[in-house]
Write a structure and sequence with these properties.
The chain is mainly α and 237 residues long. It is 75% helix and 0% strand. The protein has 6 helices and no strands. Helix 2 packs parallel to helix 6. The longest helix has 60 residues. The protein is globular, with a radius of gyration of 24 Å. The two termini are 43 Å apart. The relative contact order is 0.14.
């Protein structure tokens, strides 16, 4: 009997150590899942703010461009064009970081594959637009300009659709439920701005484009802010 009790006493610490190590490993994995979305949210927010800062700076250093009629992407032409290219890559890269954050930070019920695909498509289109400069307004058409225009149309449209999809999907997530209603209002404003941009006369397209981009950036920044502030403890395993 004493030998049996001794064997049991020797096994208990081993089992406790095993389960303790297992618990530690599980906690480490949970911590990793918690940190990744937050880092992605912070990186995306930083990229979006860089885009805003670069575009604002270009309005100052290129005063000859009338913002009422000239497109933002035309700042990529001529002096300081590299700043606009940097802005495009900051916006596209930030969007892909946001896709990663949403993909890892939301549980299955609140995650939308359609929303992720549309948002990723926007990010890729922005990178393409930054790679292929636009044609000057009123100038001859080039292949680079055509690729830029197509990517811009597809990208802007996909972002609006993504915002609408996420607004309805977030109602199923505990942490995003309160954000779903204002997100829907913002998505509808993005849709109105997109229609207004496409329908506006040529001499006002610069202004309507800036309104649309402002609505888009507000949605992206608020979403990135929400991602970096998420509490993954409510996410089911």
């Amino acid at each position: 009997m004493e030998d049996k009790h001794l064997q049991i006493a020797q096994l208990v610490p081993l089992d406790a150590g095993f389960y303790g190590e297992r618990t530690s490993m599980d906690t480490g994995r949970k911590t990793g899942r918690m940190v990744l979305p937050q880092h992605c949210g912070r990186l995306s927010l930083l990229c979006f703010l860089c885009f805003v800062g670069l575009v604002a700076a270009l309005h100052v250093v290129r005063p000859e461009y009338d913002p009422t009629s000239r497109f933002i992407s035309e700042y990529a032409l001529g002096a300081y064009g590299y700043l606009m290219t940097m802005a495009f890559f900051a916006l596209g890269g930030g969007t892909l970081f946001l896709v990663a954050g949403l993909s890892q930070g939301l549980w299955e019920g609140g995650r939308s594959r359609t929303g992720l695909v549309l948002l990723a498509l926007f990010g890729i289109c922005v990178l393409v637009a930054g790679t292929f400069p636009t044609d000057p307004k009123g100038g001859p058409y080039t292949l680079s300009g055509e690729l830029h225009d197509v990517s811009a149309i597809v990208g802007l449209s996909s972002l609006v659709l993504s915002a609408l999809v996420w607004a309805f999907r977030w109602r199923k997530d505990a942490q995003w439920h309160a954000f779903a209603r204002p997100a829907l209002v913002l998505a509808l404003l993005m849709l109105v701005s997109l229609v207004g941009f496409f329908a506006s006369p040529s001499h006002l397209q610069g202004m309507t484009e800036r309104v649309l981009v402002a609505m888009d950036i507000i949605w992206l920044c608020f979403t990135a802010w929400k991602v970096q502030a998420m509490l993954p403890s409510t996410r089911p395993e």
